[in-house]
Specification:
The structure is a single chain. This protein has about 300 residues and is α+β, with helices and mostly antiparallel strands. It has helices at about 1-20, 95-100, 105-120, 125-130, 135-150, 165-250, 255-270, 280-285, 290-305, and strands spanning about 20-25, 30-35, 40-45, 45-50, 55-60, 65-70, 70-75, 80-90, 155-165. The chain has nine helices and nine strands. Strands 6, 7, 8 and 9 form a four-stranded antiparallel β-sheet that branches. A three-stranded antiparallel β-sheet has the order 3-2-5, covered by helices on one side. Strands 1-4 form a two-stranded antiparallel ribbon. A hairpin with a 2-residue loop joins strand 2 (about 30-35) and strand 3. Helix 3 (about 105-120) runs antiparallel to helix 5 (about 135-150).
Amino acid sequence: MILLIISILILVLVIVCLVFSIRIVVQPNVGVVMTLGKYEKTLNPGLHFIKPFISKIVTVSTAQTPLDLDQQIVITKDNAEISVKISLKFHVTNISDFVFKNENSVRSMVQDTRASLRGIIGNKELNEVLNGTQEINAALFKEISSVTAGYGLNVDRINIDSVNPSQDIQNSMNRLLQATRERDATIATAEGKSRSITLENEANNRALLETNKAENEAMVTRAQAKATSVKIEAEAEAVRIQTVNDALRVVDGNYFVDLNTKAFEELAKSPANTIVLPNKTADTMGQLPAIGELLKNKKAPATDAAGE
């Protein structure tokens, strides 16, 4: 009976020891085995056996961990008060340093990040901070990376989530922004009017030039038409004169005598008593039978009167 009880106790003790010695490390964690308060070894993910009752495992995550920091009040170089909120991502690189070299490596990292942020922003003016968040991120990342390496950590990324000036500064910025917008609107309106006047003047000048061009072209057309008409009339007159001259070359003296006779008859019918003719023409006309008879009749009375 006693042996049975002892066997049962030993079996229970073995089971208990077995239970307390089995440990499972879940990925992506690693286990740090501490025996009697001293570092013994590091366990990778999986099933492990440790010394029961005298050993324990501290689990550390090696995955990248995001961390949001609370808003922080910072004073800029030009004494502007701003509220900055940042976030970062880190992962454990050295398990031993992370567990044993610092009581709280994450808290130390946060404190160093805040201190570095105050130093960087304190050397910049408000406008530089508002417009240079990427530059601040790069400078902060460089400083923190070198500091946190001793904590067994590696900072993968730091990002400034928001930068909010104080309410007084925001009101001043809003007033300045409003004034700038009004100024820009006034300038834009003035430029628009100036451009409109310029375009209108250019359009008027183009219209005037087109009108003058059309008038000049019309004047040139009229002048050309008149010149053509005069030329045509002159050519017609020249042709007429040439035709007359050609006709006169082929006629004889009787043609001119006939013309003079007709002219004489017309003058004889008029009430005028005196007819003045060139001597040559009169002599020529006297050679005509009709004119000669007429002249003889005119001279006879005069001869009779002279005889008496």
